[in-house]
Specification:
The protein contains 15 helices and five strands. The protein has 332 residues and is an alpha+beta fold. It folds into three domains: 169 residues, no CATH class; 63 residues, SH3 Domains (SH3 type barrels, Roll); 68 residues, DNA polymerase, domain 1, CATH 1.10.150.50. The longest helix has 21 residues.
């Protein structure tokens, strides 16, 4: 197998690709940005299954942009979303929400093995304004294929040109045959539907303004199920998207909820209750052992950095679960 350094460089480029697709969403067709998203997830899944399990969460740079997070949230299938969430904080927290005082964020410049760097990615300010005014996606695609107007084009972009060529042809002329992505289940669109009650079976923490935080046992209204992510409305009237695999029919009896009380974390929780809450959320035994000795106020008062210091592997996930608890305590 290749060394970790080569895997790491590929992960950096995949994150750069996701960010670029966030910029190009709605500007390219045949294939579209969502089509490329599924292709990158396929590559990502292959790489994750062949590299060290500890490597992907260490790939911090480049942080994903908010528009990239939004695109992935809307288009990722259930399996792709599970893969995405398993990669850790650096793949799930948008750049605008990353701690500004974090000095561990390395800088990253997209560069290929022959030294070629895409001009528009390394010097974003000049081309960004005209690109936003141009309805055509052609300017945004120019760096990768390195077309003829650029003097002395590097041979490196040539392999990717065959992938982007259908999008260029769609701008200038009708393509002879449209490229079709692999089929993804549950993509059929139902234009209108009456809101119907549906139960949350697994906690979900929102990561951007389009998503909504829901808790296990909560009953919400289903507004739209035309995509992999379903749109729901909670009892407070807030609307947002959640993965469809965290929901189940409201009329389906929840046997586990009838036979046991779901552990709840509050500012009055004692260590045994904190331990039960951590176990219910599915955290590992080492995390439960390290944090289960704390009281509710102590655990809720810990910062993200403190949690990651105690539990390097799951500290970030504990922190986001605590944000949902704090939010519910504030609303209450």
């Amino acid at each position: 197998m290749p060394p970790d350094e080569e895997f790491a460089e590929c992960f950096h480029k995949i994150k750069s690709g996701f960010n670029l697709l966030g910029e190009l969403n709605g500007k390219i067709n045949d294939p579209s940005a969502p089509d490329f998203v599924h292709s990158l997830f396929a590559v990502l899944n292959f790489m994750v299954s062949h590299c060290s399990e500890a490597l992907p969460p260490t790939i911090v740079a480049p942080l994903l942009s908010p528009q990239c997070i939004r695109l992935l949230s809307e288009e990722a299938s259930t399996e792709e979303d599970q893969l995405w969430q398993s990669l850790g904080d650096a793949w799930n927290i948008p750049s605008t929400q990353w701690p500004e005082d974090d000095e561990d964020i390395p800088t990253y410049t997209l560069e290929f093995s022959d030294g070629w760097q895409p001009p528009q990615l390394t010097a974003t300010p000049p081309p960004s304004h005209p690109a936003s005014r141009q309805p055509s996606p052609q300017p945004a695609l120019s760096p990768r294929p390195a077309p003829s107007p650029r003097p002395a084009p590097s041979p490196r972009p040539a392999p990717s040109q065959k992938h982007l060529q259908p999008a260029e042809h769609s701008v200038n002329q009708q393509p002879p045959a449209k490229w079709k992505p692999p089929p993804h289940p549950q993509k059929t669109r139902s234009n209108e539907m009456k809101p119907q009650p549906i139960r949350v079976k697994t906690d979900f923490i929102s990561r951007n303004h389009r998503e909504i935080t829901v808790q296990r046992g909560e009953v919400v209204e289903l507004l739209d199920k035309s995509k992999q992510w379903w749109k729901v409305r909670n009892s407070s009237g807030e609307e947002g998207y959640v993965p469809n695999n965290v929901l189940e029919a409201a009329d389906k009896p929840p046997p586990d909820m009838q036979t046991e009380v779901i552990p709840v974390l509050t500012r009055r929780s004692k260590p045994p209750e904190v331990k039960a809450w951590l176990e219910d959320k599915g955290f590992s035994q080492i995390t439960v052992r390290c944090l289960g000795v704390l009281s509710g106020p102590l655990l809720l008062g810990m910062s993200r950095e403190e949690l990651k210091m105690v539990c390097p592997e799951e500290g970030g996930r504990v922190f986001f679960q605590l944000q949902a608890v704090k939010s519910s305590l504030t609303d209450g």
